[in-house]
Each structure stands twice: as C-alpha cells, then as structure tokens.
C-alpha cells in the first residue's frame, strides 16, 4: 500500500513513518497516512509565511479566479474524492453521503469565490476622508474534524485563500487521506506554499495554536478541545474562529402533522449517522402529539438501511471510530435504564472480530433534562425524546445547556414558531427543518458552542484585520 504524502510548499513530501487509517465499516486499512515531524510542521509554516507576502499582493480578482479553478478541480475528481472519503470516514457514497459532501464542497467554493471586500468609505467631507480596508491576517492554521473532512476543509481554506492569507491544514488523524488529496488538487491551481497540509498525531495541534508565525486558528470540533486551543493561543493573541460542540434542541408544537414532519425530524437528527455538530440532538414534543410523533418517527427510521458505504442502497454508515462508538454506547446504556426504547438501543457486542463500528439507529422516549443522553452531546445515531406541556417550561429546558449552536421549532403556525425561535439561545434556528446551513448565511454558536462565524460575507471578513486610513 503506497503511503500518502504531506503537501508542503507545493511538493509531495514523504515521511519516515506512516500510520494506518482504518475504514470504520470494515476495521481494515483504508490507507497509510504520513506521520509529520515537528520539523516538517515548521517547514509548512515557513512555506506559508513566505508565500503569503506575494499572495496578499495579488488582486482580489485573481484570487477569486483561483478559487473558481479549485472548484473545477474538485468537480473533475469528484468520484475519486467521494470513494476515498467513504473508505476512511464510512459514510455511504449515495444519499446524503460522500457524493453529497463533495457536491457541497464544490458549491461552497463557487459561492465563496463570488464574494468581495472592497474598501468602505466611512466619511468623505470637508473634515477629511476616512476609509476602512480589510487586510489579510497572514498564516492561518486550520485544524479539522473527522465528520466532514472535505466540506469543512473547504469552509476553512477557501475564505482564507480568497482574503489573501495562506494556510497550514491539519486533518484529523482518523480522516486525513481525502484532505491530503484535496490539498494536492488545490496545489495544481495555487502558487506553491499557499495551502499546505500536514498529518500526524494530535500533538501537532498545540504546536500550531502556540506558534508565533500563525496569525489565526480556525477549528471545528469539540468544546473541550476548543477551550484548550483558546488557552494555548492566548500568548500570541491569535485571531480565532471556533465552531464547537452542539446539543441542538428541537421543539415540536401541538399543531403539527406528525406524519408530515417525520422525515424532516429524522434527517435533522440522523444525517451523517448523527455525527454532525448542528444535528438535532434532543427532541421536545408537546403532550398532545407526543405518541403520534414517536410512532411516525420510528416508522420512518425503520426504512433507513445502514451498511457499508460502497453499498449503493445504504443511506447511513457506521460511527467513524471506536472511541466515538464507545461514547454513544455508554450514553445509550444509561438512557435505557430511564427511558422507553422505541428503536435500537442494543449495540452489537465487541467480540474482537472486525465487524465495523455500526451502531443501530436508536430512539428513546420518556427522558428528561438531567438524563445524560439529553444533557451530553452524543454525536451518533441516538435521539432522546422529551415530553412537554408548557411552552415557557420547554424553552427554559431547551436553553438549559452550555451549548448553543442550533435549534428548531416545528409548527404549522409560522408566526408562533418565530416567536418561540426568538427565545432560543442558539446561533441558528430553523423552522420545520433542522441543520440546513447554506453558504450565504453566517453560521456560528453562542455560549460554549464557539467563537465567531463562518460562511457568507461575515465569515469571510473573519479572515481579515481592519485598517482604517484617515486622510
């Protein structure tokens, strides 16, 4: 098996050591990833620092054109990238799986390439002219998660490049292969050193977050890791965009048609086998429709085939890694003691035989705040359902969580739904859907779900410093 290589200064760089990347559906090797040394990380940062001086001098139009060409390169290699993504991440090729993720990456790149940051004239009168300019920060360190390794790499890298920065990306050691190939394709378009990619152990992350030559860190992952990054970056006063954990609440009001909303509830909760920051992770349902919503949701969930990603009939794949499988198993085992298991709840025993990290779709009713599956982020295919009667009480319960990424309200009455949405403490609220992010709308969390926003004009501007010129 030929190992992948680091991408540093426009070149494919070998390493003395490699590590196996497992296919979570088979627990067999999907590929060999390069194990970067600290010296190779320094090489990547140095290359990015040198390249940034000339890249920042290029016109915005030229950078926009480069981003559009990146989208073309991704599109030309879409099936190759999708197959590699399925092999290391586990998600199915079809449905809302790998091909969908690659398509989203193309669309996000194309939209971001259309954005612009012209100077703003704040004042122009007899007292003088005042202009606001957006200037690149310098070298951006991108630390990536394992759930959407291509899409999130695009979210980090493309706005950084468009705004005149250069990038050193570090994928998750669980899913480094597709990101390495993605960055290799980017380097067919970009000048050397503009985007670099190093893979290896988790100790590369702290080295990046404390490095004096990295001006900004963008990170997607858990709140716990985000706090460590925040602390580690303090000495160098880095700019940061942190999209952290979520425990999104959905509130179902009594006027809904349970059958009509079942599909939306299902995909809100179980897209990517529940391994999504802004997935629906706890569902509050009004007493009047509680049993009917439970019944329709379970009925829809039973139709969803789970299997190896190369099976074109599979709609859901395994949990990506053993550690996460064990977290979900532990939370579900606790919930089984307190709630009513409507579906699943009994993971296959780990006997030592390689059988993949498949956790059955699980829905557990009659839980409440204070139960671990409600209070903690499961990041897997297990959904708790909580009964409520009073709207003020349920809003209080929905907000009673340290996270505040997303939320949703389900109702036929849009006016009422908007009123409930306005009282939810989260960065995004959807009505009659959940988690439907889009490239023209800023996305980010409140409370412990993050710092800053991504996407759209506001997300692009997070990769810049402001300079005001008085004349």
UniProtKB/TrEMBL annotation:
Keywords: Oxidoreductase. The active site is at residue 243. Residues 17-469 form the Aldehyde dehydrogenase domain. It comes from the Bacteria. GO terms for molecular function: oxidoreductase activity, acting on the aldehyde or oxo group of donors, NAD or NADP as acceptor. InterPro entries: Ald_DH/histidinol_DH (IPR016161), Ald_DH_C (IPR016163), Ald_DH_CS_CYS (IPR016160), Ald_DH_CS_GLU (IPR029510), Ald_DH_N (IPR016162), Aldehyde_DH_dom (IPR015590), LUC3-like (IPR044086). PROSITE patterns: ALDEHYDE_DEHYDR_CYS, ALDEHYDE_DEHYDR_GLU. The keyword Oxidoreductase applies. Belongs to the aldehyde dehydrogenase family. This is Aldehyde dehydrogenase family protein. It comes from Ruegeria sp. PrR005.
